[in-house]
């Protein structure tokens, strides 16, 4: 990934925060047919990514393979009209702001039913937490759960390296950055508020 120095993010807390906030990843691996990409939610647990796939998925046959998991956070188009400097010089051009984390590691296929069940309990517990009556795995008939568990395998990716690129107008002066935040909030499109929030956090001085 091309990462200019001004956009490089190396802080573990920031990278882990993106992964937890945007857990739906693209997992890229090389199979017999070439590069293979799959899209699935992953959970960060003690330095590893945990998830599951159907037994028919190519990933279930790639134990030990080198993989890349891509997590994409907030993103959005930036109009040059949002920069105060554009109205003075006319030199600014459109761009796209975004935050991504690339996790490199090797894949381990997990067949352990107890491991899988614990993973499903954690995932549903997390993603159902905002529901008035959260659904639990135990809500499904036990024989149905057992059948589904036999149809999937777990995957574990030990995190060997993380690359972070948070392109949030750091290469612009403060007034332009604040102009982008205001523009995003005014536009109010899908994801604009989240992107403005990520930028605003970086405008707040650390205590």
What does this structure look like?
The chain is of the alpha+beta class. The chain has one domain (5-75, 97-171): Electron Transport, Fmn-binding Protein, Chain A (Pnp Oxidase, Chain A), CATH 2.30.110.10. The protein contains 6 helices and 7 strands. A 7-stranded antiparallel β-sheet has the order 2-1-5-6-7-4-3. A hairpin with a 2-residue loop joins strand 1 (24-31) and strand 2 (34-41). Helix 5 runs antiparallel to helix 6. The longest helix is centred in the middle third of the chain and has 15 residues, at 113-127. It is elongated. The two termini are 32 Å apart. 22% of the residues are buried.
List keywords for this structure.
elongated; 6 helices; 207 residues; Split_barrel_FMN-bd; 7 strands; single chain; Pnp Oxidase, Chain A
